[in-house]
Design a protein that fits this description.
About 30% of the residues lie in helices and about 20% in strands. The protein is an alpha/beta fold. The strands form 6 sheets. The chain has an 8-stranded parallel β-sheet. Strands 13-12-17-16-18-19-21-20 form an 8-stranded mixed β-sheet, with helices on one face. The chain has a 5-stranded antiparallel β-sheet with strand order 15-24-25-30-27.
Length: about 675
Amino acid sequence: MWLELIGFDNEQADFGVGAFLDNAGLVPEVISLLMFNADFIHTHDGLEQDRIFPPDYCSYAAHPCNDERQRQDWSQRQLLSLVRELQKHGVRVYVSVFDIFVTQEWIGKHRELLHFSARHGNAMDSVCPWKRFRDGSYYEDFFIKQLVGVMRDYGFDGFHGADGYAHPRIAIYDGDFSDDMVEQFVQATGQVLPETMRDGCGDDASKITARADWIWRNIRREWIAFYAERIQAFWRKVVEAVHAEEKQVVLNTAWTRDPFEALYRYGIDYQALTRIGVDGFLVESAAAALETMERGEASCRILCKFMAAILLNKAYVAEPTLRWLNGVKDVQEQWSAMRHAPTALESEVYSLSNLYWTDHDGQLKRCVTGPVVCLADGLKREEWQWLQQIWEIGFSMSPARVLGATLVWSDGALKNQLDDFIATRRWTTHRLLSHLIAGGAPIQSVVRSENLDVMKGAIVALNVHLFPQKEIEKILAYRNGPIILIGTNETSLPLPGFSFEDGPSPDQLRCSVYNSDEKFEVDITHEVEEKRTADPMEIKDPASWLNELDFQNISSGFLKNCCKVISLCGCDIRILKSYCGHGAPMKTDLDMVRLLAMEDETGKIRLLISNDDYVYSTTQIDMGHGIADIKLLTGLVSSTVKTDGSTFSVKIPPRGMVVMDVKTIIR
């Protein structure tokens, strides 16, 4: 759970811990206390003299109340007692802070540490942890010394690197291009700037912006690599110091992003952070919450983007624990997915808890170990009960196999993708994957290319032109199921059993199928959208993590055909028809319904059937075999699901999902 001090009650003898846990009906593994303002760490000087905290330590941005109480004034020793009380109940307690603040007791005296935004030409109220003090000493050395004191004195079990520390708050193409950061860049890389830019810019916004534009235009790859190394150096020191105290470090992922966009936009390399000892990641993936605030692309639900990101992030880091951020509500940010979008929240839980990866032993494992409740204060008892019910359903099956296609991941392809995107603006693997999932392609598992030997079933490789040649050869040698390759004609491939292309341009994508006897019937005469002609280096990247990068066009017809091919190769369970709406005339819309399926060792099939529309959808499914037993696990479970031979129909709630178990007669 992630929550603020306002979630507890310092007027109670046990600080309200007993009542909080009783109301929740569970004891969490970890509670991360959000102290919000990093001055909590900056100003720490022991606990000998008790002092009252500023208001923005006691609640996120000092918001005045939650559903239970007004914000209280907390003291250092009360916080110490709260930590001990939680630990008595078996809860590990982490501490987290942001880079932003309301009160400025310490940071107000060190404004040289603030981000200077190249886009806006001003200092932001955001700490840039990679900068230096005026005397040239590094902020990180001061921060780590203070952090170790905080960890020891309060007895925290771990440090949770949250937004602004786990990753920059603003994209690295918008800041920080101050004299400090550019000097560090030049010293680290040996890059030579134009003569007119070698002298310091001071606080001259126009000069800083001009320098930023030149760097991003001319040595973008080097700037990205510098930021990645610089952030790793920061976290290497933090991890060594915190591990020396026998405590853990977990980090948020970079603003919901997959491995490519984390690196390109924020200088974050998840695998490199894993190598330096980070103990786990909290995947920012509050899909239901974000869908209440951002419409996003009509062709791809935000949930599908987050599903794709989890699959790719897990494939890239493999062993460290991933937990996903289950965003239920945030009083300060004024949203509540639980109360305003409950069906979307259910769909988020069921979807994100049923993503899988295959390890080197051929074992199918969940990508995530469980949810992080955000934020966990002020929930009613019945809300906790409802959450636990959907978590239990989401994690209640341990499948032996997924009834769909498995994505093949390549570290080498990721490295090549950076240069490819900078030069061409072609679709990244994440963008392709998320749109394929949104289009109904049954992809809910991933395997690293080196583990193909232990795989069975259909496999899919995206952007295969970026894969190293040895990995392509290994994929083509796969004999345990159909192979679907999507990429450009830059890679020489043997003649496929079936293929189709996305239009006539030189960088067109092609979908090629091998090892399949399926008779495909796809419409390859689809309309081709005009390719973009702008110089990729001149395209402005978006300021906010909420906005998508600018890409070349891919025709919707090509994507739709890819989804159809993957479905035919990966799963023999079919959506026959779907009627959205009530009364006549009814709208038939298969594009709004998606299906994922998996099977346990007993032959029981778990179906996740989702509806992207804002009205109920009555959907008919064909299991491919006679149905022996069928059980509805969600929604109106008292309803009878009528079967007819190998088919059944079920009503799916708006923006929601139905979960059901099916036993077929012959499989």
